[in-house]
Design goal:
The complex is a heterodimer of chains A (296) and B (261). Chain A is 41% helix and 22% strand. Classes of the chains: A alpha/beta (296), B mainly alpha (261). Chains A and B meet through strand 6 of A and helix 7, helix 8 and helix 11 of B. The complex binds adenosine-5'-diphosphate (ADP) and magnesium ion (MG).
Chain lengths: 296, 261
Amino acid sequence: MAKIRADNVKKTFKIKKEGNEFDELPALAGVNLEIDPGEFMVIVGPSGCGKSTFLDLVGGLTHPDEGTIAIDGKPITGPSRDRAIVFQQNALFPWRTTLGNVEFGLESINPDQDERREIALDYLSLVGLSGYHNHYPHQLSGGMKQRVSIARALALNPSIMLMDEPLAALDAQTREFLQRDILRISKESRKTVLFITHSIDEAVFLGDKVAVMSARPGVIKRVVDIPLTAEERASDDVVAATEFVQSRQLLWRLLKEEVVKVEEAQSNIHAEDHSNSLLLDKKTGLINSVRAFARI
Amino acid sequence: MVSDKFVKKLKTFALKSSAIVAFVLLWEAAPHLGLIDPIFIPPPSVIAVKLYQLLLSGELLVHTAASLERVFLGFIIALAIALPLGFLIGGWFKTFETAVDPLLQVLGQANPFTLFPVFMALLGIGELSKIGIIYWVCQWPVLFNTVSGIKSVDPVYIKVGRSMGLTKFNLFKKVLLPAALPAIFTGIRMSAVFAFFMLIGAEMIGAHSGLGFLIIQSQAVFNMPKMYASIVSVALLGIAINYIMIKFERKAMSWKEDIAA
Ligand SMILES: Nc1ncnc2c1ncn2[C@@H]1O[C@H](COP(=O)(O)OP(=O)(O)O)[C@@H](O)[C@H]1O
Ligand SMILES: [Mg+2]
């Protein structure tokens, strides 16, 4: 178990224009967030607000322009096997079997082939996929693929799991099963989890805490405690519990303000620049994702 | 139901070979009907007999071996140079790529037949210039496909590798290379076909052995059946090489074959 602490983390992307000129795109404008050891932290926020950018920073795949992210007090300098990442979809290597995918990360730390195989098989059965070790990713359903991705990350026995919308592409039913499994596994193995989603229900169901991010450039607008116990979450009608409904409403209100901001910003762009079809495309994309929010 | 399947397969096979059979039959009949002059275009039966004789005498084997040796050498040299170069350009040196890409495109576009005289002037008319020209045509499809294959690897694969703490070398070996392999194989197969085309051309100019030489020599002495027998050998060898390449590709990428099945 490890503690994650982000202090005033800023990140601006430089987008290359013609010649040597750059456009600046501020993605994160000073993120402050603390995640306690063993805590399940969920981040929600409007599409494009910088959630994945933040997760990549915690993963050590990119570096912040300002501020620091520290694990147990030690600033992150790069990727580490102690922080495993699960991506949204299609991140399995299609040329490896299920077993080969789960063994992937182990190959650089454990030279014993039989041991690796055993560990990988264990994690496959933990995610409910025993018997599928010789299948290739294209032979699996979307939900099974994500189970393999989770097993691949767990196999490294990291103390921190970083999950970037791992269930976003799945149908509602598959999603619910996986949510329950993720909750069970994370608590049993006492991982510290940073989980990104755009579904409020998912956030309330999984999170000990839910951090709401502002519209881009992202900051953490508020961290909401979810007062549900493990037993309450395990129950079939947890969605009807008063705590669930109230958390949901609070998060919805907080998010709506940000979504409106995105819409306003977009209509300003609209007024300023009629001719730039690229921007307009981006705008419809954003507004559609805003609408998707409204439906959740 | 096995017999049902078998009958179906047989029917497909019959349908697929019907045009070829019809063509051969027409060709066989044409000289007898006075449609073509058998002196210039002998019927398939005559060619087949000639092919059999060439095979028995060992002549065909000697020339085929000479041809294959040239293709093989040129092809191997091309792989040895173009593969590493492609990895370097596609994987590491972005600026270098921007600088050399236009030059490579121009060189790759140059019609290799027009470069024959250049190769002969530089390397003489012996083996060296033939192997040289085969190397030249082989390297471009391998190089271009390798570069684009490496460059179009899904960034998420690289992220996974990096997040698991892979060294640069392992990232290349375990992520970039297997992800780019389908594109690389396309390049290799294309270059095998080009190599074969080019070889026959090269052997038609100043060679003393090889299938291309056999064609030209038979034509010079007006031995038409022998000329056609050589042409058919070239075609069969081409088909065989393509078949071997496809088998090899399937074996190397069995994970992909299932997708089609
Ligand atoms: N590598 C990058 N280069 C340039 N812009 C980027 C890059 N990655 C993300 N962005 C931009 O930064 C913003 C935040 O992106 P992201 O963190 O992926 O959002 P989210 O995950 O919240 O949907 C978006 O506007 C996105 O277009
Ligand atoms: Mg994202």
